[in-house]
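re: ur question from yesterday

yeah so i grabbed the chain u mentioned. its 622 aa long if i counted rite. heres the sequnce exactly as i have it in my notes:
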Amino acid sequence: MSHPDLRPARPLRVLALAKQIPVFESMRLGADRRLVRDSDELHMNDYCRRGVAVGLRIARASGGTLSVLTMGPPSADTVCREAIAFGADAGFHLTDTALAGADTLATARALAAAVARLGPFDVILAGRNSVDADTGQVPPQLAELLGLPFACGVRRLRLAGERLSLLLEHNDEWLEAELDLPALLSCAERLIDPCKIKDPAVWAGVDGSRIQTVDTTELGPGPWGAAASPTSVGPTWTLQIDRRREILSGGLAAAADRAVALLGDRGALAPAGGAAVARGSGLAVDLPPAQSGGPAVAVLIEPARDRHARELLGAAARLAGAVGGHVVALGPAADGELGRLGADAVRRIRADGTPGDPTPGDGRKALAEEAIAEEDIATAVSDWAEESQPWAILAPSTAWGREVASRTAARLGAGLTGDAVGLSCVDGRLIAEKPAFGGYVIADIACSSPVQMATVRAGVLGLPEPRGAPEAPVTEITVTPRGRVRVLSRRRDDDSDLLAGAEIVIGVGVGVEVADYERLRADAAKIGAELCATRKVTDAGAMPRARQVGITGHSISPRLYIAVGLSGKFNHTAGVRSAGSIVAVNADPGAPIFDWCDVGFVADWRDVFDELIPRLEAALAS
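ran it thru and got these structure tokens back, copy pasting raw so excuse formatting
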């Protein structure tokens, strides 16, 4: 089997990590707040399927082997069986009742112990995240524990000798990077056609002797599972949103009048440019005065994510007020101007050998920010945290933020909640609201560790107004880059914060012709709306991947979502479940989207928009 992009110098030992998850439509929690896995509707995580498939290609091109490692209850052996049926050489099944209740850090620790026992491996492949929990934390935590370089969201992979050349898909940007073996990689959705053997009869026919069971007695004394988990699940609740499901009939002019009246009654038509609302946390958005002393609430500042940084700093300022503390901004892009946005002190992370005190516009600022890889930033943050013992560390829920926070948490042994949509302080402890199962369930997550951590979804905490504070004092932290992950180029094709923070979003399906996009964008501009798309639209290249909404894209919560030309399958609608009001426009009366909407038009979207957009524009301006 010849693969021109794969020219290894020797046979490689490849390991693919694969997680068993419920089929999305059957997901539920048990009375003990753990995921119920006793139904027959269980399968391999969608992203992990890419890891198995590309792992097989690497193994065969090198004349090496592919093994698959899964962790889970006895039923999870089907993951190994499917991978072997697909072509993998062997499976390892890490299973033990002592592993029950493991959070991401406890999972990473167990996997690291298993890999150390079963390895060494030259390439370890994982899914970018699991679609049930969407934390994306285990791969970078595992890389930190194993001392490996890590690359997130691999979209293209080339191997020459010991060197990997990668195209990485990060939210709304693309990175060309290279690193040397051994390495741990997480796989993007479109990296390769997935491993998929659907017939359980084929799984049953796999020789069981090719699957080795591993339990905790072989891993060491532990602790394992819940006992090793620095996070715990508190109260959970199902997000119940009752949709009106009113399908409008009669002439389009009268139907548009009715739709605008209904949307007005539902609060979906607040004037454009109105005050920001903290949709996820329920916290006020006014910033308190600058603080000093007390415990630190730290915020990791990602370069060129100004809106997200502003949200996080505002939340941190409110939390600091609750615990009598102050806010510290950390990162290569952090500067004194963040004082107006909630920071009381700044720790700018600088690589040894880069210019100090960079100023905007002279090119040195970009050099200082881009010279430091995520693993090196995590080292600097961890060293600072070990000395300062902050009350909490908040980070953006982006590829950058997830890796820095995950590696930091692994180094500190800290609890980390991923993709939080709300933050609060209860009895002096951080409580993070974590969505799961496509937003069906929200759980309060608490940390038992001294340093509490969370990555936070963009657009959910409100956007506070700047305060009249002076620039925050800046102290530099220097770190020596390891140079293991070398970024050769970086380009951004969108700004995902625009979509995350939008109050009105128009969702586009394949029922809208690309030739009509210019008209659609003009209509969106009239009502201050951003555009998003289904996976099929982004697969076709009609919109950037950063605009994809759904299980394998973004989750958004605008006050008004207008779906045009899309069928409304679960994979997409799970990403807009938290929208305030949904308008559906589709010429097919049987389209599933009409079961998810508040107001529906069975008509051509262009005819509907002729009537609806002018009325919405007038209502939003009044």
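noticed a couple things. Residues 271 and 620 are 5 Å apart (CA to CA). also The longest helix spans residues 306-323.
anyway ttyl
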